Amino acid sequence: MKKGQKLILVDGSSYLFRAYHAMPTLNNSNGEPTGAIYGVINMMKRLQQDFSTDEIVVVFDAKGKTFRNDMYPEYKANRPPMPEELAAQIMPLHQVLEAMGFPLLIISGVEADDVIGTLAHHASKKKIETIISTGDKDMAQLVNKHVTLINTMTDSSMDEQGVLEKFGIGPDRIIDYLALIGDTVDNIPGVPKVGPKTAVKWLSAYGSLEEIMAKADEIKGKVGENLRNSLEQLPLSYQLATIKCDVELLVDVEDLQMNQPDKELLRELFAQFEFKTWLKEIQQGLQSDYHEESNEVSTQTENNYQTVLDKNDFEQWLKKLKDAELFAFDTETNSLDYINAEIVGVSFSVKEGEAAYLPVAHDYEDAPEQLDRDYVLNQLKPLLEDPDKLKVGQNLKYDMSVVARYGIEMRGIAFDTMLESYIVDSVATRHDMDSLALKYLGHNTIHFEDIAGKGVKQKTFNQIELDVASPYAAEDADITLQLHQVLWSKLADLKRQREVFENIEMPLLPVLSKVERNGVLVDAKQLEKQSQEITTRLQELEQEAFNLAGEEFNLNSPKQIQHIFFEKLELPVLKKTPKGQPSTAEDVLQELAEKYELPRLILNHRSLSKLRSTYTDRLPEQINASTGRVHTSYHQAVAATGRLSSTNPNLQNIPIRTAEGRRIRQAFIAEKDNCLIAADYSQIELRIMAHLSKDPGLLIAFRHGMDIHRSTAAEIFNVPLDDVSNDQRRSAKAINFGLIYGMSAFGLARQLDIERGEAQTYMDEYFHRYPGVKQYMEETRELARQQGYVETIFGRRLYLPEINARNAMRRQYAERTAINAPMQGSAADIIKLAMISTDKWLSQSATDVRMIMQVHDELVFEVPKSSLEKTKEGIRQCMESAAELDVPLLVDVGTGANWDEAH
To answer: pTM, whole model, 2 decimals?
Structure first.
């Protein structure tokens, strides 16, 4: 240590427990717990700020028993075992701290306190100023004129005077004090009924534990009797409470020096734990170091990103692209709307660190002359349409749709990094390039907002200067290629997941692009009429609500609803908010609506209001002026189960069970001389359950074309098939679908409006009749616990990070997901395969038929009336043969002038 430096001794074990209990539950996208790691690093960084010139050493408890257990086997016997989530974070935390440069001491046979005590003792003898950072009161015995305690959680410190003020005694009597009061956490006996006040009173009167024991007969009352009964064990308590200050260490206190941080390792660790802010900081530090070490290399790196402004450079890049086995391709446009977006430039990369941006439409003032867009695209067209020239991109569906506007049908799309990431781990919440670069490359990319600004002043790409736009665009292509190399190496070891990527997700990409561009015709006038009618009905509902409440109020104000419901009308309070107020949440209103009219009216009002704002008002605004159609965006990399989602508009959420929802579907129409076909898989998830569970009863029912709900009702209620009532079939349907979604007896009871015991009887009878289903569920749960994931029929992997969580609610949710996800995921895979198969058939035999929508288990087509029957049968055949299960796949095919009529 250098002269004048302080020695900071950190009680790492104390930090660890404090961080674990103080931090909310944090996990990375792989389900690894990270909260305690994050909390300790945070405290250590603050300590570094406060003591930037001093030496900081971190001490942890070692595994196993210590000498105190030999003295007293019951020592710490009352402590519960360390939570698994915490134990899993210890070794990773050690790695991070060492990478940060902190010396780490872990000595077997003693506690961290003893190691700290020994270091503090040696430092004091050498008059080195020492600070112990801990939350442990026992450490007060180590305080002297050279040793001070600090507590970062309470932002407090204790020197000798501080110990006296806090405990009423000096540091030299802390062990006596601890021996008297004992410690329930460490299971140190102490004297029964003697607390801090009594211990301080005795020590003030007699001076020491030894004197108290010698004068024990003088102390009257029950407490004196307790003291006398404890005389034999007090020396042991004293020994247990004493911090050992002569631990044999292999290092001298003056040799404890911090090391330089291992920034490369920290980058890996922060990326693994997904500590994005710290990862960004360390990345910037690495880049800074890199530039300082070699200006020449830095310049070379920048020069590897080229802006192409003349034909010679473009021709050189065309040759590189033609010669490359694989190249990354990306477009820059002036809009996210793939139907209207205009190409502003294109970028490409053929090897790591080498990329080019070719601008064609930057039109800001004094923008340099650029190559003509039509010329560039005509030169690129043969390359982009060549199926043998392999391309990789990030969300290439967008680029494919954009270049299609210019008459280019991209082929040879071999890889998409967004989809590669999604198949590697669909539970990871973000698959955008910026997040993936940070996670897999430790690279903080240039963000669009960094170059374009934010909000209303944000520039479109054509307005951005080339010296700023070019590095951003070229980096997109370069990073995409690098990400592919990392992600494909991961997929290469996962055979079944790679097959899902190659056989389902990538072939689906061009199909979805085509469906999006086809769009769907919507009757704006019909929707506008419906909006007016909904507005009238909303006013009527509002007035009815005012009449029931006896006053006017805002139907969207939780506070006003709370007042009306619970103060004025005195409705029962079913649930409270975290602040103790009666809850008016959706589930509360639904339960109240079963018995009371006003909550039912409010729910109806909310439902209609949402329908109007989301669809009847919004859909006419989303009709594209150039095509006259609505064009949604389908997302492949959002739902963990593999299901597609859609936005702008969201076609998945249009209600089908209400009259208002069906009227919206009636506004989805076909062009003149055309009609719509809606082809919907029949009970696909139950069929998948039959296939997965191999239950004989389910297999027989589906193979013989029986009504599965009626068949289940006959089994559960023990009645002949022909005698099953509609109510019994309804109950059986609730059970069939409820069980595959993990519904409990309580949930089933609520849905069927029966007693919980009766619902449990139904469920027990179901599993008795279909034992294969129960066995499948139990085996799936157990497999999920062992491997941390489940798979679909085709090998799509669905990770369950909470499957072994100690928190019962989180664990039970993961268990329900383990049962349902293979069915939902397999259904998603099957309809994707059906889309690929149907698109192939249509392209070969019926070019005038358009696939226009995918919604849940349904595909919708726009078909000329002249080819209706042929198309119906072709679609049915493609969909029913999309997968081979142990039971037949059946498809219901309907036709009509509008979507509702066809469904």
So the answer is: 0.70
